[in-house]
Amino acid sequence: MPELEASTPSYMQIQNYVFDKIKSGEYPLGSKIPSEIELAELFNVSRVTANKAIKEMSVMGVLERIRGRGTFVCSDQSVSTESKAFGSAMKLDISGSRKHQIVQFKIIKAHQELAEKAHVSEDELFYEIILVNKTKEKNESLDYTYIPVKLVDDITKSLNYLSSHFVYDYLKTLPSIHPKFIKIFVNIPHYPFLQSANFLLDSADDMSIFSTDVYDVNMRLLATTYTTYPSSSQDIPLLTFSI
Fold first, then answer.
1. 83 in a domain, yes or no?
2. Domain around 69
3. Which of 25-39, 74-88, 197-211: highest mean pLDDT?
4. Contact (CB, 8 A) for 33 and 73
5. Which terminus of the chain has fewer Cβ atoms in its 10 Å neighbourhood, N or C?
6. Are residues 20 and 59 in the same domain?
7. In degrees rounded to 5, what are phi and psi of residue 200?
8. Per-residue DSSP letters for 15-81?
9. Per-residue pLDDT at 81
10. Contact at 8 Å (CB) between 214 and 178?
């Protein structure tokens, strides 16, 4: 089994393995990759896990699955710029505008969960931007956004833009950064770094959290946003999908 970080989910280990083989030229454009059974045996995981990994890479446009023949590399770099919700046929519309208020901005060292997600050390510096979605009556939800400092020299001039646009849309405005993929994770634990939501949100004792991660073509994490909101809240427009 390849030596990969134990903290990385098994299906992502398979994806990283295939991405590395494609980038190195071992799996050139048009070549056939190992079967799901072979990948499952290689990583000592179930075939369901291997299928999830390959299915997501097919949704990305990197691989093509041909019934009766196998799975082939159909793109090495020229992947579609249309973001998609993995495991879904729906395209995610994240280009709309919104209006949040910044309640905190600072530079931090990566906490454990962030370091593991980005595959960096806990000394890596990140911008932490906490935004609140407010109504006249109360705070509806919070966004905790983290962007590596090394990607943006000075983000302070962009804070107003970030308060009214999704981070994916912001990253697309930067000339040297090319966001390609989004992953959304639900049922996120109430991590210690999200504890400020306890006093910034009403009914925070029963809170729901999801994260939206933005990656480049090589699946390098460009930004992550943890959205927190009271589970008792109704009709909060957290995400918009278009079919």
1. no
2. 10-78
3. 25-39
4. yes
5. C
6. yes
7. -90, -20
8. HHHHHHHHHHTSS-TTPBPPPHHHHHHHHT--HHHHHHHHHHHHHHTSEEEETTTEEEE--SS----
9. 37
10. no
